[in-house]
Structure formats: structure tokens, C-alpha cells
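task queued by scheduler; priority normal; single chain, no ligands, no partner chains; default sampling; output format set to C-alpha cells
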Amino acid sequence: MSSPMATPGSRRNAVRFDLQNDKEMDRLQFSRLILQKELGFLPAQLDYIFALPGRKTFEVVFTTNTFFEKCLRNFESLKTTRPQLANVGMVSLSQTEPKTITVLMFSEQVRMEDIKTWLQQRSTVIHGYEMRDEDGIRTGGRRFFVQLKRDLRTGEIQHLPPVIQLGAIRGHVFYPGQPKICHRCGSQQHLLAECHNIHCRNCDSKEHLTKNCPDPVKCNLCGESGHTFKTCPSSYANRVKKTPQQQSTLDLGDQILFQQEVTEDGPAKEQPQKEGEDRKEKEGIEPAPPPSETPQPGGLEETGEEQRNLVTPVHIH
């Protein structure tokens, strides 16, 4: 019987192996034959191995999340080629931990909202922000906290591609535990410099290159056919165009900031003041000089201290 500790999702970096049919092992045999020899782990990468009663069930806790993910990623592929794994089953006892994703795109034309849309096609975005240097200047980097998705059939974690492209602008995606893959065909068995495969990024065909693809172009933001990023209805620019009410909401913060930095009642007085100037002009009354030309009591013109106190900095959260 499984222990109460083995509730799926309740532990970190833990998996459970079940020996099937007539296969049995003791704890040391399982460690050396299955974990070390077949799956390629070193003893230092294994934090705990719990042998449950019956010589058929073992729970393994890895030292880091990277080794835990390596086990999930490699077990299914190795199982089909390693006879010793044929009668071994495995389930994860841990949820995939949220990842801190860094996205670098060196263009001021790229919007945070579009990067978030791209990520949401491949993961669950928790939140994100733009990175700034010590002087508060944006660097072009964006940081997101995301939950990676898992393949429902194999249980394997679906990692993000290392390259993001929105329209003609290309950027890079990286995070701890990200596997190294070929940027051309997506293989984890080699890198781009060693790749000799033909691969189409538009339709994933192995028969032709992207530039020769006969299929309709796919949008590199939403993945749909028939349009490009520039005309994608999911892009931030096009969503704003289609919904003027959203544009008004987005601009509201700037409007409030402007109004409060002038004075709280400035806009309300602007119209009466304009009507008064029109009446004086009609009656031939000479208008009063602008406030900046009128001497202020208490040395306001000299120090400007009271003038500065009228402007209240406003921070938009």
C-alpha cells in the first residue's frame, strides 16, 4: 500500500516507479540497474530512494528540479529502446514548478501584451514585467513567471522553444532547466551547427524549407493560417483598433496622471475661463497678463518653492 506521503502533486522533485508483471528488485538493485545504468543518473543526483514494501514500488526524490525534469523527459523515450525498462512504470509525484522565463527582444516595437499572447499558446502565464537597469531605463528584456504544460499522453513537460519571432522581429527565450535543442528542426539530439535536416517552420514538414512551403502562411503569434502577425486579430495593436472602449481604458491612466499633475480642478475651470476671455474681448477689455508675468506675494517668483508644491507626483501601479 502506498504511503500518505505519495499523494501526487504534494512533493517536490519526486517520482514513483512501479515494477510490473513478475519483475521484483531490492532497493540497491533498483538504484544501480534502473536509475544509474538505464536512466544515466549519478548517485549525487539522487536525494532519496524509498523502497516500499513488496519489492515492486520505489519512490525517488531528485536533488534538483532539473534532474526531476530530465527523468520525466527521458523515461518514455528510453523505455522503448531499453529492455530493462519494458516492465517499469513511472508517475510523477510533483507538479511542475513555475519557471522564471526571460525573453530578450531588442526592439521598441515589441509589446509586452504580444509576448504574453505568444507564451500563453505554450504555457500558463502567471505574471510578467519589463526589465530595467539601475537608472530605471528599459533594457529590452522581459521576465515572466509561467507554468509549463505537460503532455497528457506521456506526462512529459512541454518546454518552450529557445527562439521567439513576432513578425520580422526575432528574440530569445531562456530559463533554468531548458533543454538544448536545434534551432532549425527542434531536435534535442544535436545543435544547429550539426543539423543537416530539412525542416519547414511554417508546416513542420521534413520535405521542404520554409521559403518553399506551398501551404498558406501561418501567423507566428497565434499559429493560425491565412494571416500574418501584422494582421493577426490577437495582436495587441489590432485588438485595440477593434475595441475603441479598450483604447479609452488604456489611455485613462495617462489622462488621470496629466490632470492630477496640473491641478485637480484645472479641467473644470478651463471652460469658464475661456468664456470669460471671449466676453472681455467682445467688450474691449484688455486681458490680464498671464500668471507667469504677475508677481506673486511671498517671493514665489524668486524661489518657486510654492509653485513646485502645486505639482504632486503621481505613481500608476
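post-processing summary
- The two ends are 52 Å apart (CA to CA).
- The chain has eight helices and ten strands.
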